[in-house]
Design a protein that fits this description.
39% helix; four-stranded parallel β-sheet; globular; alpha/beta; 22 helices; eight-stranded mixed β-sheet
Length: 557
């Protein structure tokens, strides 16, 4: 039976009883003819506070033009976004992960409230991308996700730089390696225009993952935010969503267990952000797909690292686009038998069909053949042990140490750890511990890029380790264990740590331990008192009350 392209909007605008609704719509310029067509939501998170989503209003116009040309009536919907980079190191960073749930909820509310027949969700900054997938799977109406694109790299002293260089410059400045003028020059050059952070940080990782799980058109993420090709990408996305609608293809028809595995493979093969663990757990949860934190380690262990991308590698996101983009990455993985090529995508074609004609720039060395992989295994590692019984996440994408043992330097909030780093109170061999920054304890699980980048900038990146029940930015590099679970706020073993306790990380053994007996840990926790909640009302308090542990994706239902 053919799929009705107006399967939801009939109830909103058809018939004499719906005259009031039609009257409201006509007051904003829609016509009777417009209301006889499928109604398509074009959602985005444009906000005048950051570059990541700054191009989305203009891109939305292109998407809407494509929808109109294909016989639909588009309606623009705006929601929020929080810049991780701007809020990093402040109380505002706690809003970032919480915003993922707010964005998901708000798109769901508009989708239901206006009986939209289909949806295009334009995404940019980190949390907007998983939020879009989560909303699509909740609504389960024909739709797709469209990444508004990466920022171009800045140029400084003849080479490309990104926001990572600014954060690390703060550490260099604190160490006296650079002066005020040099830091200001790096600051001025790093972000030349609109677009999300420009390397294989969380935004670009999740944009690629969304293509590999099938919810974004293949190859649509690669062109940068200010690339002239992006207008055409937007128009074609608008036309595509109408095709998806007429075919009646639903998000839950696309996203199955094998699609989720493809997403993990895409992240692991490119040295992607550890945040992919948190976000794919949440996406799988929305789709009703069983997924465990240990699955990331198992899949990553079988996936070669073939994307030479920052922060662990040499190249930025636009270099990957130049080299051949996601189609070339998928082709490489398929050729090596590392990808489920028969999984479906939103175009109605399989991944294998989408990448069959992938183009490659001659001589490029951004995306390597599997036989020339940078590492035989991918970049995502899950550690467990007496400090992380439910697991923690480490990214091993470059040439990180496989072991570290040293005294714990314990901090109960990120600001205190950052101050210790900039005051040069952290020594080679230390293990920096930042706790009470988990989903409930923060609340909101702040990223620690300010601390990790300052450590690198001071020259300690190769001699210290860091562990936290908070998160790391995709720009983080070095031996850093995040998402330690259970978190300190709920009485996880990390709450029992004391200054000077000897902590060991063993990547090959997949262990994170403190050299204390089980009896000593139990005794310390028995004497432990939970801290008072940092928020007792409002959205932060609601989130802390409802959120799950990081090992479950920090979901709220």
């Amino acid at each position: 039976m053919p799929f009705d392209p107006r399967h939801r909007s009939h109830t909103l605008v058809d018939g004499p009883g719906r005259a009031p609704a039609r009257s409201y719509f006509k007051s904003i310029g829609l016509t009777s003819d417009d209301l006889r067509k499928p109604l398509v939501m074009v959602a985005h998170e444009w906000i005048g506070t950051m570059p990541c989503n700054f191009s989305q209003r203009a891109l939305a116009q292109q998407v809407m033009a494509g929808i109109r040309a294909a016989g639909g009536t588009p309606m623009e919907v705006n929601t929020i976004s929080i810049s991780d980079g701007i809020s990093m190191g402040t109380e505002g960073m706690k809003a970032s992960l919480i915003s993922r749930e707010v964005i998901t909820d708000s798109i769901e509310l508009c989708g239901v409230g206006y009986s939209f027949d289909a949806v295009v969700i334009i995404v940019g900054c980190d949390k907007t991308i998983p939020a879009a997938s989560m909303a699509l799977l909740r609504l389960n109406i024909p739709g797709l996700v469209l990444y508004s694109g990466s920022i171009a790299p800045g140029r400084y002293e003849g080479h490309d730089i990104t926001i990572q260089d600014v954060f690390e410059g703060v550490g260099q400045h604190a160490a006296g390696s650079i002066g005020d003028a040099q830091l200001a020059a790096i600051e001025d050059a790093a972000c030349p225009g609109a677009g999300a952070c420009g390397a294989q940080y969380t935004a670009n990782t999740m944009a690629i993952v969304t293509e590999f799980i099938g919810l974004s058109p293949f190859g649509s993420a690669s062109p940068g935010a200010t690339d002239p090709r992006k207008d055409d990408v937007g128009r074609r996305a608008g036309e595509l969503v109408m095709d998806v609608l007429h075919r009646g293809q639903l998000p839950r028809d696309i996203v199955d267990r094998r699609a989720i595995e493809n997403g993990i493979i895409a992240a692991a093969s490119t040295g992607g952000s550890t945040n992919v663990v948190l976000h794919l757990l949440a996406i799988a949860h929305e789709a009703g797909i069983p997924l465990d934190i240990d699955d990331f380690d198992k899949i990553s262990e079988q996936t070669p690292l073939i994307g030479d991308l920052r922060p662990g590698g040499r190249y930025v996101a636009l270099d990957m686009d130049r080299a051949g983009g996601t189609p070339l990455l998928a082709k490489r993985l398929l050729e090596a038998g590392k990808l489920h090529g028969d999984t479906m995508t939103v175009t109605g074609r399989t991944i294998a069909e989408e990448c069959a004609n992938a183009a490659e720039e001659p001589g490029q060395d951004v995306i390597l053949p599997v036989e020339k992989a940078l590492k035989a295994t991918g970049g995502l590692v899950i550690l467990k042990g007496n400090l992380a019984p439910a697991g923690c996440v480490v990214k091993v994408a470059g040439h990180e140490r496989m072991q570290h043992r040293g005294p714990a330097r314990v901090f109960d909030r990120e600001e205190d750890a950052f101050q210790a780093v900039t005051d040069r109170r952290i020594n080679p061999g230390d293990v920096v511990v930042i706790r009470y920054e988990g989903p409930k304890g923060g609340p909101g699980m702040r990223e620690m890029l300010g601390v990790t980048a300052a450590l690198v900038g001071e020259g300690l990146g190769e001699s210290v380790a860091l562990l936290t029940d908070g998160r790391f930015s995709g720009a983080t590099r070095g031996l850093m264990a995040g998402h330690v679970a259970p978190e300190a706020f709920v009485g996880g073993p990390i709450a029992a740590l004391r200054e000077g306790d000897i902590v060991s990380l063993d990547i090959e053994a997949r262990r994170l331990d403190v050299e204390l007996s089980d009896d000593e840990i139990r005794a310390r926790l028995a004497a432990w008192t939970p801290p008072a909640p940092r928020y007792t009302s409002g959205v932060f308090a609601k989130y802390a009350r409802d959120v799950s542990g990081a090992e479950r994706g920090a979901v709220t239902i």
